[in-house]
User: What shape does this take?
Amino acid sequence: MAQYPPAEPPPPPPGPPATRPGAVTAAGVLLIIGGALGILGGFVLFAVGGSLGGLFVVFGLIFLAVGALQLYAGVQVLALKERGRQIGIILAAISAVLSLLSIAKAPANSIIQIGLDAFIIWALTQNASYFTT
Assistant: This one.
C-alpha cells in the first residue's frame, strides 16, 4: 500500500467572525438605553396627558412606539442581526436630524445627542460585515 499524506482540513465556512466588536456592543447598548428612556417618557406623557389633554397622549403613543422600536433594534444589534443594524441606522439618522432642528432651543443636549447618533451610525456602518440576516 502506498503512503499518502493526510488530507488537509477544509477551510472554515465564510461568514461573520464569532466575536462582536466593542463599538457594535456600545451602539446596541445605546439603542437599548434610548429605547427604555423613550418608553419611560411615553408613560410619563400618558400620566400627564390624562389631566392636560389629548396632545400629550398622542406624543406618549409616539414615544412608546419609537422607544419600542429602538429597544428592538438594540437587542437585534447585540444579536448581530442585519435588520437591527438597518433599523438602528435609520432611527439614529432621524434622531440626529431632529436634534439638529432643536439645537437653538437646547444646544448642549442637542450636540450630545448628535454625537451619540453619529457614533451609532458609524459603528453600525463600519462593522456591517459582522451582521447576518
In short: The radius of gyration is 21 Å.
